[in-house]
């Protein structure tokens, strides 16, 4: 099929989804990628090179990825025209080719376009944002025992205040919404109705259940001891409190969890290992201090969209920062991998930042495709590169005896250690 600006590689095939939702991955898959704005120009080419090297080394030419560039963000406006930030064919290809990877995309603060990252997640219904927090030996951390932080975040990715339903202060729509709330709903708590902007926070039973189900299943499949529902349900009773209640209810209904000492905590036996999995909850503010003081008590985290955003960066800092924080956005079939960090605009085009987050996102992608040998090699070479102390600025500034290397230099150090 011919696209307007996407060049389909002459070799390679699509990854497809089987009836049981498993992937059918050919030896030469075509994988779409978005370069990304800002430091995307630095980290994405390094990620492609490191992944190609790991695949070549692991499978000796039997497997190979054929990369296909698709466009979003500033590059899309250059290729497609000034106002085209997220071309339809980008969405179509990401859906059709099932597995893809992206660099970060800029979202202006205040006015301007709404987040393209959020738009991609919404349009493709990538409802799980999966962000593992893993410590690599030798990485500088502000904690005394960073290895105790070992968590996996399941962040709800399709609803919450993050959905972007909000109305500007003094606009006609804000005035209408405020009038409706005051006159029809009897709301008396909008402190300054004439000058308030209004935001809407949708949180649903379906949205919560599908996210919590994935988190519980992940705990089963990966032999994890607990799943913690993180929320601010004491204050936002029906949205965040609903998330907590529906999460517990799902654990009981679908996983046979039983209350511990009258609840609300509950537990069930892992059907694969026979071990106990505890389902508990934590109020978000207390949780943010607990992860610093008692990180070993937390394992799988299930949370709402905005909490998950904050928690991701906070936890990443505990194990060395967002230079090394990978992630995936997933539906039941389609997955788009991306780093936790943003475009870091002050470093754009300087071949300076850590490509580690995007490389580790690609490692998650390889594992998702079943290319475990190549994924293991990426991890192994990352560990060895860090131990060699040839690292980018973010680690070098905190590590004794380190040699600072560039973004592409770090990719080369990884390849040298494969
Ligand atoms: N998924 C996405 O595409 C995301 C996009 N964004 C967007 O990115 C833009 C910039 O956001 P901002 O809040 O500055 O957050 P960023 O994550 O882009 O950067 C914040 C800081 O994190 C550190 N950092 C970021 N990337 C790296 C890296 N690769 N290696 C080492 N350190 C890194 C830098 O710290 P230091 O200054 O200490 O060197 C940087 O100043 C915004 O438009 C935002 O909306 C944000 C998050 C996710
Ligand atoms: O979409 C954006 O610009 C920011 C998103 C973000 O910070 C995240 O998803 O972690
Ligand atoms: Mg974020």
Automatic annotation (TrEMBL):
Keywords attached to this entry: Glyoxylate bypass, Magnesium, Manganese, Metal-binding, NADP, Oxidoreductase, Tricarboxylic acid cycle
Isopropylmalate dehydrogenase-like domain span: 30-414
GO process terms (BP): glyoxylate cycle; tricarboxylic acid cycle
Chain positions recorded as Mg(2+) binding sites: 309
EC number: 1.1.1.42
UniProt modified residues of type Phosphoserine: 115
SMART domains hit by this protein: Iso_dh
Positions bearing N6-acetyllysine: 144
Reactions it catalyzes: D-threo-isocitrate + NADP(+) = 2-oxoglutarate + CO2 + NADPH
Residues the entry annotates as binding D-threo-isocitrate: 115, 117, 121, 131, 155
Residues that coordinate or bind NADP(+): 106, 341-347, 354, 393, 397
Cofactor(s) the protein requires to work: Mg(2+); Mn(2+)
Enzyme class: oxidoreductase
Modification N6-succinyllysine occurs at: 102
SUPFAM superfamilies, A to Z: Isocitrate/Isopropylmalate dehydrogenase-like
Note on cofactor: Binds 1 Mg(2+) or Mn(2+) ion per subunit.
GO molecular function: isocitrate dehydrogenase (NADP+) activity; magnesium ion binding; NAD binding
Family matches, as Pfam families: Iso_dh (PF00180)
InterPro entries: IsoCit/isopropylmalate_DH_CS, Isocitrate_DH_NADP_dimer_prok, IsoPropMal-DH-like_dom
Residues under site feature: Critical for catalysis: 162, 232
Subunit-structure text: Homodimer.
Family that this chain belongs to: Belongs to the isocitrate and isopropylmalate dehydrogenases family.
UniProt protein name: Isocitrate dehydrogenase [NADP]
Source organism per UniProt: Ramlibacter monticola
């Amino acid at each position: 099929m011919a696209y307007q600006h996407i060049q389909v590689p002459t070799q390679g095939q699509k990854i497809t989804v089987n009836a049981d939702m498993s992937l059918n991955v050919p030896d030469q898959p075509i994988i779409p990628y978005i370069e990304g704005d800002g430091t995307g120009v630095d980290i994405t080419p390094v990620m492609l090179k490191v992944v190609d090297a790991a695949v070549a080394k692991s499978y000796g030419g039997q497997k190979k990825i054929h990369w296909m560039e698709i466009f979003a963000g500033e590059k899309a406006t250059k290729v497609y025209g000034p106002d085209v930030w997220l071309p339809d064919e980008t969405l179509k290809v990401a859906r059709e080719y099932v597995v893809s990877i992206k660099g970060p995309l800029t979202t202006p603060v205040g006015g301007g376009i709404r987040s393209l990252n959020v738009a991609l997640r919404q349009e493709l219904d990538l409802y799980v944002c999966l962000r593992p927090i893993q410590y690599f030996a030798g990485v500088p951390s502000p904690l005394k025992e960073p290895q105790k932080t070992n968590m996996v975040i399941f962040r709800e990715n399709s609803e919450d205040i993050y959905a972007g339903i909000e109305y500007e202060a003094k606009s006609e729509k804000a005035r209408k919404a405020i009038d409706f709330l005051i006159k029809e709903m009897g709301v008396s708590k909008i402190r300054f109705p004439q000058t308030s902007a209004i935001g809407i926070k949708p949180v649903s039973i379906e949205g919560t259940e599908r996210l919590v189900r994935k988190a519980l299943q992940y705990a089963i499949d990966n032999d994890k001891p607990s799943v913690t529902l993180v929320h601010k349900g004491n204050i936002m009773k029906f949205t965040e409190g609903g998330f907590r209640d529906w999460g517990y209810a799902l654990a009981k209904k679908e996983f046979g969890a039983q209350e511990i000492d009258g609840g609300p905590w509950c537990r069930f036996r892992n059907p694969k290992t026979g071990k106990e999995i505890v389902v508990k909850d934590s109020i978000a503010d207390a949780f943010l201090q607990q992860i610093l003081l008692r990180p070993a008590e937390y394992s799988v985290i299930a949370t709402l969209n905005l909490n998950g955003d904050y928690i991701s960066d906070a936890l990443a800092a505990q194990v060395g920062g967002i230079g090394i924080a990978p992630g995936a956005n997933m539906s039941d079939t389609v997955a788009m991998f991306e780093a936790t960090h943003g475009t870091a605009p002050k470093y754009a085009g300087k071949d300076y930042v850590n490509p580690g987050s995007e490389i580790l996102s690609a490692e998650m992608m390889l594992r998702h495709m079943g290319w475990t040998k190549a994924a293991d090699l990426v991890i192994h070479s990352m560990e060895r590169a860090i131990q060699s102390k040839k690292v980018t600025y973010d680690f070098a500034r905190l590590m004794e005896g380190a040699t600072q290397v560039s973004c592409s230099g770090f990719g080369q150090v990884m390849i040298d250690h494969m």
